[in-house]
Amino acid sequence: MQASSLSYTLFDSPLGQLLLAGNDAGLHLVGFPRGSRKKVPLPEWRPDPTPFGEVERQLGAYFAGELRVFDLPLVFTGTEFQNQVWRALCEIPWGETISYAELARRVGRPTASRAVGAANGANPLPIVAPCHRVIGADGSLTGFGGGLDSKRLLLQLEGALPTDPQLDLLPR
Length: 172
Prior knowledge:
Elements: E1 7-13, E2 16-23, E3 26-31, E4 46-47, H1 53-63, H2 80-89, E5 98-99, H3 100-106, H4 113-121, E6 134-135, H5 148-157
Parallel strand pairs: 1-4, 5-6
Antiparallel strand pairs: 1-2, 2-3
């Protein structure tokens, strides 16, 4: 990926302003406004909302509870193993959660739960490649680059967790 060839825009969501970065090949990044994986535009990126019309439409429909499967060109630029894990994330259905061990099994590496967890945590396209659907074997939410409140809200939106009225910022 040529970082200089990327455009970016900000998308207002119930989680705050998400940073979207991409080019003609597809979406490269969805960045959270806070949390351990907070993202900001790189100086060489150019602000341009033009390439993101369909991404914004689909994210809006997702947050409105009207879209369950994203249909966007995605550009994964990780290692072969990371890309395999990220593609497997896209196969986890709306409203379902799986454990890191199950994700490791699905990518054919049943003893690699930690490596799968690290790849999951490095996912450049959260929400669209739904890493929030991977939880601890005991049902705990575990870490999330956008913060656990964001993970909880996404899972509540999908009906995978009961709604917490104090955190329920999503439209119904």
